[in-house]
Specification:
With 103 residues, this protein is mostly helical. The chain has helices at residues 11-17, 22-33, 45-51, 56-75, 81-100. The protein is globular, with a radius of gyration of 16 Å.
Length: 103
């Protein structure tokens, strides 16, 4: 699955999305894809404030990206993407070490 965000999504938002578990990512996706913004206790205040500054095209890209992240997170037990990525990198390092030592 391609988890690369659209170029028009600000990097600080991408980083913030990677910190959220699947449940929160779903809430964010629902929030940004809604025709009318609503108050949601599941969407962090810092994100709703940041969303107010984005144009429609960026909000559409955010919705698509967060939806992909939610699916990916759910496939890995609902963990935040940054934790999944960290674990994958550790596994790759272990594999490299095993190859190096002939295991």
């Amino acid at each position: 699955m391609d988890l690369e965000p659209s170029d028009n999504i600000p990097e600080f938002l991408v980083e913030r999305f990677h910190e959220l578990p699947a449940e929160d990512l779903r809430a964010v996706a629902e929030y940004v894809q809604s025709d009318e913004f609503f108050t949601s206790s599941d969407v962090p205040d810092d994100l709703t404030t940041s969303f107010e500054l984005q144009d429609d095209q960026t909000m559409e890209a955010i919705g698509e990206h967060v939806e992909k992240l939610a699916v990916y997170s759910e496939e890995h037990g609902g963990q935040p993407v940054e934790e999944i990525t960290d674990e994958s990198e550790e596994d790759e390092e272990d594999d490299d070490a095993h190859r190096w030592h002939g295991f």
